[in-house]
Amino acid sequence: MKLSDRYKIDQKLGVHLPPDLEAFNYSDGKDEERQLLENVLGCEDTSVYSKTLRKFRVNWPTNYHLSPQRCNLLRPFAETFKAGAQVLEIGAGCGALSRFAGEMGAKVTALEGSLLRAAITAARCKDLENVLVVCDNFQKFSCSEKFDVVTLIGVLEYSQLFITAPDPVQEMLRKARSFLKPGGFLLLAIENQLGLKYFCGSSEDHVQKFAFGINDSYSKDSVITFGRVDLEKKIKEAGFFKAELFLPFPDYKMPSCVLYPGGLKERGAWKPGPLVASSVVFEAQPPPFYLFSLEQAWQVVARNGLLADLANSFLFRAYNESCELAEESSPTMAAHYGYEKEKEDFVEKRFVCRENGELETRISKMQAPSSLDSYRVMPYQPGEIYGDGLTKLMNIPGWSVADVAKWAEPWVAALREHAFKTESTEVDGTSFDLFLPSNFFDAIPLNLAVDSESGAARFFDIECDVQTPLPFEFLVFRGLCIMIHRITSCAKPAGDSPQRIAELVLKVLEVLKIKTPQSKVQTFLSLFNNFQNQASRFSKDAVHPLTEAIVRGTFPVRLI
């Protein structure tokens, strides 16, 4: 990468600087960013999946800058980065995405206006010779080279604050386009002014005021976001040939899944609603109050083909000129990003429509670029996800313990079909005589599909094998705890319903006639905590946050 003579490298910081560097008034907190720089500089492994960096993720800013989940936004385009593309990243922040693109093999020019944040990016990418960090205002940035990919991720909304022009938004888009090679593309990620979570109670991300964007309270001197139609119009006015829309959920900052252009609407067996609804629990900045159930609302939005208009964030790929658009004919409908406990692998699950119209699931590792070349295929599971029924039930005013128990009965019956008796066996000092196979650890209602025609139930995604038979009562306890914890808001229950998650689960077990004396409850909680610590790679003696939430947490009942 060749910069103009205007830039000279600061050897200590590893950042290229102009002679007239201006102050840049944007920060997540100077003290926090200085601490982040110190932590990254002192860390030998600064890779995307660094175990050392994980311990520095203690609040929202540090989690945002260090979490590998940030990189899921770019995974639909991983093959481009792997091919050694020339990439210009405008607004690199603290280097999370710079690191990902660099690890994939791209030649990255990471441009950042804040010197402190640019220094953090340089430290994060210190072992990658293919990442060059520049500190400058984008409006002043000069470079004779053109790029295959230019990114504006979480940047366009600040154009009115940092770009001096009659139309700062258009100025930023046009200048970004000017750096593209023929056939190159812009990746643009931004919040949706009309995102569903903002109707539900979330504050506007930048000014932290409820309904600020919905009320269109932006001014010419403020940050600004757009609805889909407005944003597509601005992209077109900036001279881009065409823009493809991808939808990251729950948002572009920390996506757990991404819908591809071909998967935005229901088509045949493909139904995006359950996938989108399942992302709600991963929202890193949930609303302080919920006006309705986001999980339920997303299902309705998806059925009515409105995901593109009400998604919380947009991810556009805008092409510089007329060219063959690969994703228009892409067989991929969506991708989900998760973690396989048994193999300790971060995995991507792509839902793909084959030429014959059938759907399949392709699972690949995410840790290394080479993993893109290999994947294993599993059948796509059509039909209703049984776990979704609990969300619907608990959003009916006046729901009761008896209602939850009645809902759980078919799932419990499905577990019993695979249970076996053995001589009374002690687990953590407690006797059990009914067990399930060791690979049924994840046989929770979310992994039970019910055929809409035959009513047949079948478990899927239960590959995690803990290598020891599992007490039947414990798996029922664990499954109910996880399901209730995943529900982000619910309607007001009947007056005698417990408010704490664990207490509600124990009441349900009582109705199901599953005996749970106090000695067993303590064993359940101990096993639950041990498994969660193992899965999260926490210390064996730690109290896992999910365990704490199960024991002390209450399920969030809406006031209206």
List keywords for this structure.
single chain; 560 residues; alpha+beta; 12-stranded mixed β-sheet; 3-stranded antiparallel β-sheet; 19 helices
Structure description:
This protein has 19 helices and 20 strands. The protein is of the alpha+beta class and 560 residues long. Among the domains are: 50 residues; 168 residues, no CATH class. The strands form 4 sheets. The chain has a 12-stranded mixed β-sheet with strand order 5-4-3-6-7-10-8-9-11-12-13-14. The mean pLDDT is 90.
Give a quick rundown of the structure:
This protein has 19 helices and 20 strands. The chain has 560 residues and is α+β, with helices and mostly antiparallel strands.
Q: Based on Cα principal axes, name the global outline.
A: globular
Mean pLDDT equals: 90
Low-confidence regions: none
Using only C-alpha atoms, the radius of gyration works out to 25 Å
The biggest sheet, with number of strands, parallel, antiparallel or mixed sense and barrel status, is: 12 strands, mixed
Q: What's the quaternary structure here? A: single chain
**Total number of β-strand segments?**
20
How helix-rich are the residues, as a percent range? 25-40%
Strand order of the largest sheet: 5-4-3-6-7-10-8-9-11-12-13-14
Helix/strand class: alpha+beta
Distance between the termini: 57 Å
Strand content: 15-25%
Q: How many DSSP H or I helices?
A: 19
